[in-house]
Amino acid sequence: MFKNYGLLGIEHLEKEDIEEILDLAFVYKDYINKGIKKLSTLKGKSIVNLFYEPSTRTKNSFELAAKYLGANVINFTTQGSSVQKGEILKDTVITLTAMGIDAVVIRHNMSGTPMYLKKYINLPIINAGDGMHEHPTQALLDMMTVKEYKGTLKGLKVAIIGDIVHSRVAKSNIIGFSKMGSKVYIAGPCTLVPEIAKKFGAIVKNNVEEAVEGADVVMGLRLQLERQKKNLFPSTGEYAKYYGINSKVLNLAKQDALLLHPGPVNREIELTSEVMDGEKSYIREQVTNGVAIRMAVLNLLLGGKEYEKVI
Prior knowledge:
Order of helices and strands: HEHEHEHEHEHEHEEHEHHEHH
Radius of gyration: 19 Å
CATH superfamily of the largest domain: Aspartate/ornithine carbamoyltransferase
Number of helices: 12
Structural class: alpha/beta
Strand order of the largest sheet: 1-5-4-2-3
Number of domains: 2
Shape: globular
CATH class of the largest domain: Alpha Beta
Largest sheet: 5 strands, parallel
C-alpha cells in the first residue's frame, strides 16, 4: 500500500515498510553528514509542497530533501494563490497535476485530506500532517532518532506526555512505535487524553510520573491551543506545574533516556529550558533526521528502492 498510494499515514504501513524507510534514511543521513547534498536520484521529477497550514520544520525539510535528491520543488501557500479567490482544494491539485508534477506533499487542517485527494489524482501523496489525524514523517523521524541511539525499537518504554487528543504526532507515534515492538505510555490532563488512544496500542496512565518512570524515551507534545474549542485546563501555569516535563520528572526515566519533542516548543510550559537544552535532549537531532527520512520517503515513492551510491 505504501508504494501504491504514497504515505498517507503510519496506520497504512507494515513493519517491513517502516524498516525499509529507516534503513534508507540512515544512508542519507551519512551522506548529509559527509556534505554530500547534491544527488541526481530524482533528477527531472517535480514535487509540490502544498501547505494550507504554517510550518517551519516539515515544509523546509521536505524542500531540502527534494533538492538534495535533485528534484524540482514548487512551494505552494494559500496566500497569493487562487485559493483566496475561492478555488477549492480539489481544483487546485488537479490544476497543479496538469502542469506535470510527480508527487504532492500536503499539510491541511482537515483530517483525511490526503485520502480524499487520492480520488482525484493518480500520483504519490505524502501526508505532511492532516488535522488531528496523522503526521507520518514526524513519527518516522522520531523512530529513526530512537533507533539511532538505542539500537532497536523493540522492548522500549516510550512515554508521550501532554496534549494527546489534538496531536496527530501522538497518534502516528503510538501506532508506529507499537508496530515496532515498543510499549507506549501516555499521560496528560484527562480532558486531553482520549480513551480511543488505547485502540491504537497506548497504555494510559493517570499521572505523568507513572508514565515516565523507567522510560527509555520521553516525548513532550506542543500544547495546541489553536485547536481547542474551549478551555480544557485551568491555565498554562497549571498545565506546566502538573504536566510539564522538568528535571525532576525526567530523572524518573532511565539514566540514558532520550528527550524528544516535535516542535515548536513552548518553553517553560511543555518543557523547561533546563531539560530542553540538557544532555538528554535530542530535539535538534530529530530535525536533522527529518531531512533524511523525507529523502528516503521521496526516493522510495519516486525513484525506486535503489539509491545513488556515492564513493
